Amino acid sequence: MATEVPTLPWLPADPEQELTRRSHGALWFVARRVLAGVVTLIVVSLLTFAALQILPGNVASVVLGRSATPQATKEIEAKLNLDKPFFERYGEWFKGAVHGDFGDSSLALAQGASNPTISSRIGEPLVNTLILAGLVVVLLIPLSILFGVIAAKAADRLPDQAISVSTLIFTAMPEFVIGSVLVLLFFTALGVLPPNTIIPPGGNPFEHPDALIMPVLTLLLTSLAWTTRLVRAGMVDVLRSDFIRYERLNGIPERRVIWRDGVRNGLAPSVQVFALSIQYLIGGVIVTEAVFTYPGIGSLLVSAVLGRDVTEVQAITVIVAAAYITINIIADLLVVFLVPKLRTEL
């Protein structure tokens, strides 16, 4: 008589079928997130387009200034298609945007620029902003983990208290205040760094490293403060857990306990925090670029709003929103990867 093999309740009856189910679940999860992101982008673009219509004046009034006459205003509006109905103009913009063409800058076109295309105007500032934000992210993640682990290991002792007080101070200070303090310290008092970031057209920010220090430091301090606190909170819970005590009792080296098992389990709740910090950088970059006159996408957005350049504002807004959505999707996938339990629920 054949012996019946008992089925373990925590193992699937058919492993191959379970693997297929999870693969389909993961693909469906990604598809839903991407679809939601596309819908969000469309809504954002429509709301932005509508909001810019509410602002007083338009490109014609900005270009003509005090010399504006009804006839001259109508001529520029007809040239820029501003006399067309709202949904017709939005439809034309949307059709081009779907094919990667954001059109021409209304302000540049009205001023008779030789190359008024949006892609030519935002390309260089976008690269400059990505360099600035990229440097901050590269420093932010390891420093947050390092300070968070140090604070968690010394919970309620002097190192933890020093880190907590410092992070509280920087959390309470907005970017323009921190930037102004850094200018006062490094330029006015010490005279070692320039107060403004001057990068000539076509230049590379890496060719002027001294001009990058204060903008990077400003964004880093504002973001590092609260990411460190949240990493510390997650690590404190993990270091007090039973499995960490078990590993220590079994003689596993402390460094391995902390940096392999502790950090991996403590970081899972912090992934979304890092994602929010990177998203926050996108907004903080606009303020920081204004403080240090950094030639990035934030400075271009401010000048586009002041110039009532609808197409340029629209393009920049969609790019920023796409960055937000992409960061959110990546963060969700990382959380699922780090927490095995979530993978079984897809």
Which structural category do the helix and sheet elements fall into?
mainly alpha
Whole-number count of domains: 2
Computed over alpha carbons, the radius of gyration is: 26 Å
Spans of at least 5 consecutive residues whose pLDDT stays below 50 are none
What share of residues are in beta strands?
under 5%
Q: How helical, in percent, are the residues?
A: over 70%
Order of helices and strands: HHHHHHHHHHHHHHH
Q: Indicate the CATH class of the largest domain.
A: Mainly Alpha
CATH superfamily label of the largest domain: MetI-like
Distance between the termini: 40 Å
Mean of pLDDT = 78
User: What is the overall number of helices?
Assistant: 15
CATH topology of the largest domain: MetI-like fold
Sum up the overall morphology in one term.
Answer: globular
